[in-house]
Specification:
Elements: E1 2-3, H1 15-23, E2 29-33, E3 39-44, H2 50-63, H3 69-75, E4 82-84, H4 87-95, E5 98-103, E6 110-114, H5 143-151, E7 159-166, E8 172-179, H6 185-196, H7 206-212, E9 225-227, H8 230-238, E10 242-246, E11 252-255, H9 273-302, H10 310-320, H11 327-347, H12 350-370, H13 376-388, H14 395-415, H15 417-433, E12 435-436, E13 439-440
Helix pairs in contact: 5-8, 9-13, 9-14, 11-12, 11-13, 11-14, 14-15
Length: 494
């Protein structure tokens, strides 16, 4: 065999030949002619598994003489061989790690042999959705591995995958997963239509898809659930929802979603229902406290200090004695400091970030109080509100909570408690209008669907969750039919 960067001029006058010429400009592209043969082999060595190349392809090609590519196709024992004349198919397969074999003459046919190199990290534990109890597997950057993690949890032929290539330059593999007969066809078609309409050049992560197919692209609230847990994806698929997996992304997107889903952790389903319900209510209360605590502090101290009890008012006056800033500026300084600590901790290495977050918070907070720049009461309130914002199992919601606190502060300064109420009304009105894949985002609160309340604010026992959510518009609404419980029989000792 001899390596050659140029083939015959006759072949390179064709469209496929021009493609080979263009690829030859890259240092990692290899093309050579088989010894005593009219066939050429070309591939990107950084995309091809050399073991497959030498063991399954070159070993056969050097021992036999072939007359045509058709004979070669039958001799090579590799799956998914394609003999084609389409330039688009050759270009796509070549860039995905296929080896192409062509003749010296100007014949348009090419034999495409898959030999792509797979470099994937091992399946590890979830990082952003970690749970003490339950499965410990998380998605990785390989689409095939991620589909395997979901399919082994749904071992039925009705589990369907529709795959697309999205991105004019990236050609990213995007898979739409659903269970046929359970998922509503309108939801599936909506997802497929929005994905195929994407005209962006590059799709690097599932978050790109999440932003591009959202119903309201200007809303700070996420309208689709982004999760790294295959068990969660399998669970929502069985409820009749649709999942989107992207090659190169360690997370999946599920929808249609409701606001309550962002406060639901997978641990809620592996613990006793009453304990899970209590924890879920704690999350709702924590988020409410995170949004309203600092604005209420500003509103009360600015306009409504007569509402404060006498004993508490004395404490607040003593804590604010000597503070040169009004309550609004004092709150914004502390909120901004908390955000700086968050960003610094997130961008630094894990061990350094944790140290910066803890030490920085203690040092800056203590120094600010001692310097008379802020009150110790507000410092406690801001710290608790920042801590409460992390109680959401889905990270994207905590970002929205961090953002909307600042408009609440502005309204509280302008109009006091009336401003807080007005800002609350604006947020609620926005949530009422929000949709997820065309379905109501605040369901089952609005529109009111009492049957779906069994797994919204609280989680009822499994034997009472006999039907799937009405929001999914599923054709198969019944999960299971409960059997009538037999009469209690007394024990022999009773």
């Amino acid at each position: 065999m001899r390596r050659n960067k140029r083939s015959s001029s006759a072949f390179h006058s064709s469209e496929i030949g021009k493609l080979i010429d263009q690829c030859c400009k890259s240092a990692d592209f290899v093309t050579f002619q088989l010894k005593d043969s009219p066939f050429f082999i070309s591939y990107f060595q950084t995309l091809v598994d050399k073991k497959v190349l030498h063991r399954d392809i070159l070993t056969i090609l050097k021992d036999k003489q072939f007359i045509s590519l058709e004979d070669m196709k039958h001799a090579i024992q590799v799956e998914d061989l394609v003999l084609t004349t389409e330039l688009s198919s050759v270009k796509q397969k070549l860039m995905q790690g296929n080896i192409i074999i062509y003749q010296q003459e100007a014949q348009p046919s090419c034999l495409l042999i898959p030999a792509f190199l797979q470099e994937n990290r091992q399946v590890s534990i979830p990082e952003t959705e970690y749970s003490v109890v339950g499965p410990k597997e998380a998605f990785v950057e390989s689409l095939d591995t991620n589909i395997n993690l979901v399919r082994k949890r749904i071992p039925v032929p009705e589990f369907q995958i529709k795959e697309f290539s999205v991105g004019k330059l990236s050609k990213t593999r995007v898979a739409v997963a659903y269970i046929e007969g359970i998922a509503d066809e309108e939801n599936v078609n909506t997802v497929i239509q929005r994905i195929t309409d994407i005209g962006y050049d590059q799709i690097i992560d599932s978050s790109f898809i999440n932003q591009m197919i959202a119903d309201n692209k200007n809303s700070p609230f996420p309208q689709l659930v982004d999760t790294e847990r295959p068990d969660r994806v399998a669970s929502v698929l069985m409820e009749g929802k649709v999942a989107i997996l992207v090659d190169g992304s360690p997370s999946a997107i599920t929808g249609p979603a409701t606001l309550g889903e962002f406060f639901s952790a997978f641990e809620d389903y592996v613990t006793v229902w009453n304990i899970a319900s209590a924890f879920r209510l704690i999350r709702f209360l924590a988020i409410t406290f995170s949004v309203l605590s600092t604005p209420l502090y500003v509103a009360v101290l600015t306009y409504h200090y007569e509402m404060i009890p006498q004993d508490l008012l004395t404490t607040l006056i003593s804590s604010r004695a000597g503070i040169p800033f009004p309550p609004l500026l004092e709150a914004i300084i502390l909120e901004w400091t908390i955000e700086l600590l968050r960003e610094a901790g997130a961008r630094l290495p894990t061990k350094v970030g944790q140290t910066i977050g803890i030490v920085g918070g203690i040092v800056i907070g203590t120094a600010a109080v001692q310097a008379g720049l802020t009150s110790n009461v507000l410092l406690i309130v801001v710290a608790l509100s920042a801590l409460a914002s992390f109680t959401t199992p889905v990270y994207q919601v905590s970002n929205a909570i961090r953002l909307i606190r600042f408009p609440f502060l502005i309204f509280a300064q302008l109009l006091g408690l009336l401003g807080v109420a007005a800002c609350t009304a604006i947020v609620v009105a926005h949530l009422l209008k929000l949709k997820s894949l065309g379905r109501p985002f605040l369901e089952p609160v609005y529109p009111i669907r009492l049957k779906d309340m069994k797994d919204a604010l609280i989680r009822l026992p499994f034997n009472q969750q006999t039907s799937r959510p009405l929001q999914t518009r599923t054709d198969n609404k019944i999960k299971f039919r409960p059997h009538s419980s037999p009469p209690d029989k007394r024990d022999i000792d009773e």
